[in-house]
Amino acid sequence: MSTPMGTKRAMASVQKRIDNQTQIYPPLDYSFHNAQQLEDAVVEPRAPQNGPKLVKQGDRYNSYGINLNHNTLNGPLETLPDFLRTILVNPNALSTLDLSFNVFTEIPINMLSDMTEVQKLAPLKQLKYLTLHGNPIEITVPYLRSYILALLPGLRSLNCTPVTKGDRKISEVWEGMNKPLLPNYTNKKPIE
Questions:
Q1: By the 8 A CB rule, do 185 and 123 touch?
Q2: How many domains does the chain have?
Q3: What distance in Å separates the CA atoms of residue 79 and residue 88, rounded to the nearest whole number?
Q4: Which 8-state DSSP code applies to residue 46?
Q5: Are 130 and 148 in contact (CB under 8 A)?
Q6: Which domain of life does the UniProt lineage start with (predicted)?
Q7: Quick check: is 74 in a domain?
Q8: 20 to 30 Å CA-CA from 81: which of 37, 41, 126, 164?
Q9: pLDDT digits (tens, 9 = 90+) for 46-61
Q10: What are the tens digits of pLDDT across the range 84-114?
């Protein structure tokens, strides 16, 4: 029979092993580089002042997030998977992507007016945080939050607002009623 103190020690030991195996990598910060195309952003990312340091393997980085905000990025996002493979050791592990405050006509404050551009993000299975503030779709697409959560069910935060259990429930109901609006590949195929 284990004692409460023995159980506490065992749990602390397990937690320590988990903590020692979990790598924390900072997001790659390519913000404010005046990049016009994704490929232009591939310069040395800004090093974080505090916290974990950038970890590079060969010419690619270990990271779960990319900040591309406040550039002049434009054009289609078809090159996003290639861009991610160019800079990330494990592009399928991407959980945070900040594309806000660029000039995309096809994705964030951008001029995104067509959900087909958002649908291109569906293969990013690990995407946890997405910000699409200031786009026309906020006005033109009814039930936008439910639509995006059905498309990207792994999101934890949308437009800087945490995704709640209620949001998920509403999204599930919305998805059941609007299945034809979602692409067949929704969140199934990882980037290769």
A1: yes
A2: 1
A3: 14
A4: B
A5: yes
A6: Eukaryota
A7: yes
A8: 164
A9: 878 887 888 899 999 9
A10: 889 999 888 888 888 888 877 655 445 667 7
Cα Rg for the chain, rounded, in angstroms? 19
Which DSSP string corresponds to 112-163?
A: ---HHHHHTTTT-TT--EE--TT-THHHHSTTHHHHHHHH-TT-SEETTEEP
Alpha-carbon span 162 to 15, nearest angstrom: 26
Q: How many CB atoms lie within 10 A of CB 181?
A: 15
Match 């009623």 to its residue by tokens. 177
Residue 7, in any domain of the structure: no
The two structure tokens encoding residue 191: 């980037």
Token pair of 79 as six digits: 């090159």
How many CB atoms within 10 Å of residue 28?
Answer: 23
Residue numbers of the domain that contains 101: 19-181
Is residue 26 in a domain? yes
Sequence length of the chain is 192
Per the structure block, which two tokens stand in for 177? 């009623």
